[in-house]
Amino acid sequence: IEARDVDRLKALTIPLHEADMGDLLEALDADERRRLIELLGPDFDFTALTELDETVRVQILHAISPRIAARGISALDSDDAVYILEDLDEDHKAAILEHLPAPERVALLRSLDYPEESAGRRMQTEFIAVPPFWTVGRTIDYLRETADLPDTFYEVFVVDPGYRLIGAVALDRLLRAKRPVLMTAVKKDQLHVVKASEDQEEVARMFEHYNLVSAPVVDDAGRLVGVVTIDDVVDVIQEEADEDLRALAGVGSDEELSDTVGYISRSRLPWLVVNLGTAFISASIIALFENTIEKMVALAVLMPIVASMGGNAGNQTMTVAVRALATKDLGSHNARRVVSREVLVGLINGLVLATALGAIAAFWFSSAQLGAVISSALVLNMLAAGLFGILIPLAISRLKLDPAVASGVFVTMVTDAVGFFAFLGLATWWFSLT
Amino acid sequence: IEARDVDRLKALTIPLHEADMGDLLEALDADERRRLIELLGPDFDFTALTELDETVRVQILHAISPRIAARGISALDSDDAVYILEDLDEDHKAAILEHLPAPERVALLRSLDYPEESAGRRMQTEFIAVPPFWTVGRTIDYLRETADLPDTFYEVFVVDPGYRLIGAVALDRLLRAKRPVLMTAVKKDQLHVVKASEDQEEVARMFEHYNLVSAPVVDDAGRLVGVVTIDDVVDVIQEEADEDLRALAGVGSDEELSDTVGYISRSRLPWLVVNLGTAFISASIIALFENTIEKMVALAVLMPIVASMGGNAGNQTMTVAVRALATKDLGSHNARRVVSREVLVGLINGLVLATALGAIAAFWFSSAQLGAVISSALVLNMLAAGLFGILIPLAISRLKLDPAVASGVFVTMVTDAVGFFAFLGLATWWFSLT
Hints:
65% helix; CBS-domain; three-stranded mixed beta sheet; MgtE N-terminal fold; mainly alpha; Tetracycline Repressor, domain 2; homodimer; 6% strand
């Protein structure tokens, strides 16, 4: 197909949904992608680009001329256009913008002016706003007669002459109302408004909390400047949960399957270097007890068990804490209760596991005393895991930092340190090995 | 306020959004919750219950009489009613259903008949369907004149006399069309239909992929039985990402902040027991080299570093793999490429870190040979981490199991085993310590 047959190609690809077209583009190689877009010409729907990994999208935009890119982008809703443009470098972005008609260029530049990850970047500047004295009938007539409406919309906004937002009317309310009813009479009881400068995570939280499908965006003066819709919010929710997951594992939030080996190696290295540092801290603690280990090698065999069990328990507590902080379920109102709960859970599971571990260790090395020492060390470490597994994320979030990014390192450091120190220290003291 | 003042209470709580009412209920204690609901009487909106943690919801429903619960539930949309009922035990569910009018009871029982986590459970059975010969005008008149419509809707469906789905009309298209136009002429080009028996994750995937806000649900015979809306899907997306995160850390997916200490201890214990088992495997590998360690205690000091670096690198790879599998970005079409990429990343980062680790170890123990041994062991373990960090989730997902649940145990087992074995084995051979 890739050779010439434009008609056949158009017949095959034009009925495709933009998301499926995106999948198709990702499956092709760089050269095929460029040729496909050239062959389709104006029939290529640039919305498909919003469905691609960033790497692929940037590569495609570099392969086609700025003029063609500008033509495609000008057909898009403003939120999609911003989404495509924001990842490009400044020169390339300017080259494409130059080919756009002035009013569109100005509108896009205004959106791009908002900080990254703000509502202003995610909003669509196409929306429908009517004055408060309009009736339902007049609004419907206006919708029927106006050709240049947004592609999709879920609400009609009511604004005063200064474009300040008065209310929002959901389409189902509009359809149910009689024609002579005033728009202000059918507006929603509660208006959930987004500020353009607001962080996209806050916006997502609001959509989730109030089950919204669309929300008006206002500037600092309270003027309606755009609308955020649920499809953009779904992406944010997805990204946000993914970010926490990746941060906990020390993977960069922007890593994608299509990235190169070099890029991925570099992006994962910092986390590993930090962990190398903490591993050396654990090693230095073990080094304190070199004499002890020399006299009783069984300790070297058993010590990783105490450390790793504490690490696992700390990780459980920390994961719950990080997500609860992200969804605002955990806050100062219940922190004290959750901390004592986690410590108790650590104590209970510590006692259960210590019994099992102590029995097996005692049997393995035929020493009840060794069993008692390792049991005590495990209980201490499980307590530390519960306590620091929750306190560390809480403290990091109190410092206004993201607990998902840094908690893991500190929690592992604590459970390793306490695990090795408690076990080797107790053993040294108990068996008087110095 | 909790004492008597019903009027004041109503004035304060009735304007609240259901989500805020839910937050309020969670903040109260059990007795206050019951009294608040009793005082509000028929003015209490049961939708607030859908915003609560399961534990709190079940506790409230146990505190109030089945008759009052039935009255509140019958005012809800069917998806909310099912959501509230599905967590109750059979007897309690039956007691509440008994107080419902027969047609509602039958409808709810039918929804509850669908498997848990299926589209049938999440759908709302209230929807608007019109015959294909209706015009836009007639549909709008019908919407204006019918009192008993669903609370919110985003589409009007077109069905044949046998209730088989012909098409769906988005409200914005309906509003833009002229009155005499036939409904079939404004229906969507592409219809995305959900089967009632479909898994809710599949439904969420479809909504995300095609940016939907609502989708019709059909039974096995193709008859329209309900509609799934984006607010339910957002919850599913959120839950799903959370499930992966929790599964990777070995925390039960149903654990909530309001659960008791006993419940949480029990739910976290199985994962810790499994890890205790794998920790013993690592310990047995170390035990193989007891003689070696006795002769060179520095090995005991350094060995956890090799194991933990491998564990961290394996965890990075595994996290990326688990999420990519969940979002279907990773599949048989690109598995080979991703595997070789991960192995290469492991090799590159292994070489970088091995240089640093080798230098520090050589300096610390004044032994260039020890530095060379630990470097080689680290490179081997980083290679194993890359390879098994991706192969294990792939294999588990090939077996149709959830890679998030089991991958962690196996990956850690491999990186611990390879780490200890490679380092202690190489040292034994190099320094001829037997």
